[in-house]
Amino acid sequence: MTAHKILPVLLSIILGVSHATAASPAPNKPAVHAAPTFQTPETLTAAHIVIDLQSRQTLSAKNINTPVEPAALTQLMTAYLVFKNMKSGNIQSEENLKIPESAWASEGSRMFVRPGDTVSTDKLLKGMIALSANDAALTLAGRLGNGSIENFVQQMNKEARRLGMKNTVFKNPTGLSREGQVSTAKDLAQLSEALMRDFPEYYPLFSIKSFKFKNIEQNNRNILLYRDNNVNGLKAGHTESGGYNLAVSYSGNGRHILVITLGSESAETRASDNSKLLNWALQAFDTPKIYPKGKTVAQIQISGGSKKTVRAGFLKEAYITLPHKEAKMAEQILETIQPIPAPVKKGQILGKIKIRQNGYTIAEKEIVALENVEKRSRWQRLWVRLTGQ
């Protein structure tokens, strides 16, 4: 691995911006961590994780791999599978599903469907997402499990493995307490990111503040939706044995933050814990864009190619999250193995940029080929042999 210093980012200029603040209740930690120069707010959570989704840096993490009860955050996976089947055409949003008696008799939160009724997929989704309605979750699971909840749970666990949720085991589609049903803050963050990334067309469902069914209107348990218009999801959950959980997405003022808190003591401390972490992420850090999409960051040498070098950079805009109180020069180190053997395909990983500040590696960004470079042609190889060039 070869390291090269490249031009530093003048953060003292870039970070000269105003700082956004999320609303909080009355006064009452996939990436390299930022340098530990800020004290994370005190919370009553059993576990939490705070991620800047633009830079993909984890800003705060507490017990992120400790198994806990996911409660109704389990329904994020139920929703993921419904969205996946809607996208493939296996189920339609307007399709009416017959309510089984087992769903009607479910415990916990409900939207109060009745056995034998037919209710659209769309309404069941809204009830499950906004109200954590277990009767809706079981009806949807039965449809996609071909009448078998067990089959659907197998799908949930298969999808969890595919998404990299290494410490998650689902036992039901609702999140009701069941021995052995566990997840972690890190795994639930991966699932939350996947929902936003894979199904942007359905994601607005997570910002529904209330839902009315058969003249019964209920409010979303994620009360941060009411306290800040930039909060656009995701889900609240609770079990007696596991405590109060909350997954929140904030998107506004040039920032996109995910905060997951698990095991809070009450619905209010759940909101307070989450708000403290969200406000801290917004106020203590900035996330400037360091490279635009398609900009050449480096020319990487190629062996046996139709060209001697390939342009390297980012296929998407590249961001970095830094403490705004430490707006100093950040050193960028480009690490590559050169020369790269041809052929090189656009999007192929060619190395990484390490961004260091105050002796810490605060972020690593993979750089990729911005173009295709084929192997030398027969005539090019002959020319090289004749000229040595």
Provide a short characterization of the protein structure:
This protein is α+β, with helices and mostly antiparallel strands. It has helices at 11-14, 75-88, 101-104, 121-131, 134-144, 149-162, 185-198, 224-227, 267-284, 378-387; strands at 2-10, 47-52, 57-62, 96-98, 118-120, 210-213, 216-219, 231-239, 243-252, 255-264, 285-286, 289-291, 296-303, 309-313, 318-319, 322-323, 329-336, 340-341, 349-357, 360-369.
List descriptors.
389 residues, alpha+beta, Peptidoglycan synthesis regulatory factor (PBP3), Domain 2, Beta-lactamase, 2 domains, 7-stranded mixed beta sheet, 5-stranded antiparallel beta sheet, 10 helices, carboxypeptidase
Helix and strand arrangement:
Elements: E1 2-10, H1 11-14, E2 47-52, E3 57-62, H2 75-88, E4 96-98, H3 101-104, E5 118-120, H4 121-131, H5 134-144, H6 149-162, H7 185-198, E6 210-213, E7 216-219, H8 224-227, E8 231-239, E9 243-252, E10 255-264, H9 267-284, E11 285-286, E12 289-291, E13 296-303, E14 309-313, E15 318-319, E16 322-323, E17 329-336, E18 340-341, E19 349-357, E20 360-369, H10 378-387
Parallel strand pairs: 13-18
Antiparallel strand pairs: 1-17, 2-3, 2-10, 4-5, 6-7, 8-9, 9-10, 11-16, 12-15, 13-14, 14-20, 17-19, 19-20
Helix pairs in contact: 2-5, 4-5, 5-6
Protein name: serine-type D-Ala-D-Ala carboxypeptidase
Family: Belongs to the peptidase S11 family.
Pfam family, one: Peptidase_S11
